[in-house]
Amino acid sequence: MKKFLNIFNKVLDVVYPNHVKCVFCGEETSETSVYDCCKKCWHELPFIKSSCPRCGGPILEGSSGVCLDCKRNNYDFDQAKSVFIYEGKVLSAVHRYKYNACLNFSTPFAQFMAEIYASWNICPDYITAVPMFKDKEKERGYNQAKCLATELSKMFNLPYIDFCVKVTDNPSQTNFSFAERSKNVLNAYKFNREHKKLIKNKTVLLIDDVFTTGATSSEVSRVLKNAGASAVYVLTFAHTIRKNLKV
Ligand SMILES: [Zn+2]
Ligand SMILES: [Zn+2]
After folding, report:
1. 15 pLDDT more than 80
2. How far apart (Å, rounded) are the C-alpha atoms in residues 57 and 74?
3. Which ligand is nearest to the CA of 25?
4. What architecture (CATH level 2) is domain 56-171+178-239?
């Protein structure tokens, strides 16, 4: 499939040398930007304008302090940030990215994340991604979180290390609460011991595509900290808001 898509894109390059397809609506656009996004979509994208200082989720403009999630949940990462609310065009683009082998989305998605990273006052020593269970990664052909992390690694010259592996294939977590998800992912990740010396007292930037309840990012952060990391920051492309949650 991947090979076919590459050939298809090469053919398009010959027929339409400057073609850019908007990653959010699929329309050809003549506008050239690093985000591969047309003007119409740009204005409709659910950017997070005011974010919780702890988990990066959207909060009402002008409100202070952490969000309800952060009051309830005890996260193991130091701070998290996301670019978008996980809804509408962002949700459907992430679905295509994950399930339709739209690997060409990695660069524009990472560009959006790069904006957040560049304005964030942190100095990570390493960048890593939330790992996938190896059979699942084999089936999909790639780990989308790792694709985003390697793009960011190139952009910011940050060494990418596979610090963790996923050792259990836990069931789908859709509709689970933070507590249920935390239980579900507990001990699902293991530190790759060959990197033990590297991580001691280091700061790590952890990348994932979507922050849902934060249970996965928190569990991977716990594993990284147990292995010796002094701080873990989480950067995701999108952040879910649950319907029963006031923002
Ligand atoms: Zn568009
Ligand atoms: Zn929060």
Report:
1. no
2. 15
3. 1
4. 3-Layer(aba) Sandwich (3.40)
